[in-house]
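Progress note, sequence design subtask.
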């Protein structure tokens, strides 16, 4: 069973993501800010991370850069979730080292597709 770390500072979005992923058969854990995301990724060793971009403190772009720089987390697939415009957000996500990008609001179908394409 693939493990996914879900990171979002909005409790409702976090709950929706976790519930959806667990129904799809994934094991999940959560963090609510950037620092927590880095710590949880190193400790939990997830297969993938769904990471909100706009959070207080470290934003998702900086978290992604730190995850890519840490030997313990270079293997993790990172999907950035953002309300930024598609072109702007996707360019910044890829420049930070993300494996995928999902613009908010997104459908459950899109979420499922992105996650399934990243994980075996």
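Output:
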């Amino acid at each position: 069973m693939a493990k996914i770390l879900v990171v979002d500072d909005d409790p409702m979005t976090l709950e929706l993501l976790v519930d959806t992923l667990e129904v799809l058969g994934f094991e999940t854990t959560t963090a609510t800010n950037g620092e927590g995301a880095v710590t949880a990724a190193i400790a939990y060793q997830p297969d993938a991370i769904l990471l909100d971009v706009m959070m207080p403190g470290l934003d998702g772009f900086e978290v992604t850069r730190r995850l890519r720089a840490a030997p313990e987390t270079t293997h993790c697939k990172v999907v950035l979730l953002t309300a930024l415009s598609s072109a702007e957000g996707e360019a910044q996500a890829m420049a930070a080292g993300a494996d995928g990008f999902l613009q908010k609001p997104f459908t459950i179908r899109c979420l499922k597709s992105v996650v399934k394409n990243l994980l075996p």
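The radius of gyration is 13 Å. Work on this subtask will continue into the next period as scheduled.
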